[in-house]
Amino acid sequence: MKCYATLLVILSLLLTVAVLAEPATPNYHLLQTIAVGGDGGWDYLSIDSAAQRLYIGRFAGVTVVDVQKGVVAGEIPHLPGAHAAALAPKLHRGFTSNGRDDSVTVFDTDTLKEVARVKVGKGPDAILFDPFANRVFTFNGGSHDATVIDAATATVVGTIVLGGRPEFPATDECGHLFVNIEDKNEIAAIDVKTLTITHRWSLAPGDGPSGLAIDRVHHRLFSVCGNQKMVVMDSETGCVVATPTIGKGPDAAAFDPTTGLAFSSNGRDGTLTVIKETTPDTFTVVATVPTQRGSRTMALDPTTHRIYLAAARFLPEPATKPGETPRFHRPNIEPNSFAILVFGM
């Protein structure tokens, strides 16, 4: 009996320490601003956690940042309409989606030198390396399909007709890949070996999905949508389990399996929504972190738990002349103001 009572006391103390160790509200805040510079906009961010390198699609090429040193490590130039880079660390290879010439550039991640260029579908945008199949998938906005490339040989092995405009993908690394279909408000589930669509799941009440992340342990997908909802879906059944509210203008999503936190980067209102996964079916917004207007794409480093957001200063919009109807103008970026914002706890 005495041993049992002692055990209860020890367990009680351990639980108290655990509760005190984990803050009720994650204190995400700006840790560092890495000046990158250069002209033009940006798109996807990809992190090589082991090498501590961040890859940024800049439309004319890909910029590589050493996030440990806080400096630009190099450039991969001459990539027409470069949107993103997918990384295959064990192969020492990277793959860029070049939207303007319908190609993928294969490069050496050690030297950043181009080693091959592969023709793919029309308007490749998002790109993903799946380690289970050892294949690279480009998601082509112009031809509404996905091109599949053998990562080892850099050859096209198939095409998947998606039936809509694809956005961000995610993989469970166990044979299944998922992609948001923006104009259909659905997620397409793909078998990475047979290259077939196995399911199409509605994202209602979500509208206009873009970013997609995954909790591989609990089989949850996180799709951020333009109507300020993060749709949390069971990746095995397609059932929607939660729809927490996020900020305006989301584009990217991320999930940290260690902390159980999901994130939405919201460019229109310049915020980062932080959502806690208490149980696989319970999700609560625990923080809304101020970032910077236009910071819509991000990358999460699962080892350091840091979040990297792209940012720049924008020039004032053109003044409306008397009697002229105001029109939307895509804001122009102040030259050389591009930077990476580093957030952490």
Would you write up a description of this structure?
By secondary structure, the protein is mainly beta. The protein folds into two domains: 27-41 and 208-317 and 332-345, YVTN repeat-like/Quinoprotein amine dehydrogenase (Methylamine Dehydrogenase, Chain H), CATH 2.130.10.10; 43-161, 7 Propeller (Methylamine Dehydrogenase, Chain H). The chain contains one helix and 28 strands. The chain has one helix at 2-21, and strands at 29-35, 45-48, 53-57, 62-66, 71-76, 82-88, 93-98, 103-108, 114-119, 124-130, 135-140, 145-150, 155-161, 166-171, 176-181, 186-191, 196-202, 209-215, 220-225, 229-234, 240-242, 250-256, 261-266, 271-279, 282-290, 298-300, 307-311, 339-344. It has a four-stranded antiparallel β-sheet with strand order 1-28-27-26, with no helix packed on it. A four-stranded antiparallel β-sheet has the order 2-3-4-5, with no helix packed on it. Strand 3 (53-57) and strand 4 (62-66) form a beta hairpin. It is globular, with a radius of gyration of 21 Å.
How is this fold's topology laid out?
Blueprint: H1 2-21, E1 29-35, E2 45-48, E3 53-57, E4 62-66, E5 71-76, E6 82-88, E7 93-98, E8 103-108, E9 114-119, E10 124-130, E11 135-140, E12 145-150, E13 155-161, E14 166-171, E15 176-181, E16 186-191, E17 196-202, E18 209-215, E19 220-225, E20 229-234, E21 240-242, E22 250-256, E23 261-266, E24 271-279, E25 282-290, E26 298-300, E27 307-311, E28 339-344
Antiparallel strand pairs: 1-28, 2-3, 3-4, 4-5, 6-7, 7-8, 8-9, 10-11, 11-12, 12-13, 14-15, 15-16, 16-17, 18-19, 19-20, 20-21, 22-23, 23-24, 24-25, 26-27, 27-28
